[in-house]
Write a structure and sequence with these properties.
The protein has helices spanning about 1-20, 30-50, 55-85, 90-115. It is mainly alpha-helical and about 120 residues long. The N and C termini lie close together (about 10 Å).
Length: about 120
């Protein structure tokens, strides 16, 4: 039941982010993140609702690619912090955001990995 709630939340979050993505100027990293998140959402939905119980080479490759992509995004966020910080905030909000994003991405990757192994939620 927890995976189903997470999958629905993830889908709603991506839908809201999609609307926001096309309302602001889009940079290459944001567009690539959006393009990576779509199949990731499909994979988590498939895993949560048990629609693809057999292993697939696509999901094996994509779960590895997704892990590398997430690490690259987190590193980019940490590297961009000095120029994004206006001096009003310390490192606390960045650390909090990275921990929340890390937990969120970990469970998204875990769903993809379990789907690639053919496990059923």
């Amino acid at each position: 039941m927890g995976w189903k709630i997470f999958a629905v939340f993830l889908t709603l979050f991506t839908a809201v982010a999609t609307v926001g993505l096309f309302r602001a100027p889009v940079d290459a990293m944001a567009l690539m993140s959006y393009l990576v998140s779509l199949p990731a959402n499909v994979g988590v939905l498939l895993y949560a609702f048990g629609n693809e119980p057999r292993p697939s080479p696509y999901w094996t490759f994509f779960s590895r690619f997704f892990a590398v992509w997430v690490v690259a995004c987190l590193i980019r966020t940490v590297a961009a912090y000095p120029r994004l910080n206006s001096g009003h905030f310390g490192p606390g909000p960045l650390i909090f955001a990275l921990v929340i994003a890390g937990i969120f991405y970990f469970f998204q990757w875990l769903g993809l990995r379990r789907l690639s192994l053919g496990e059923v939620s």
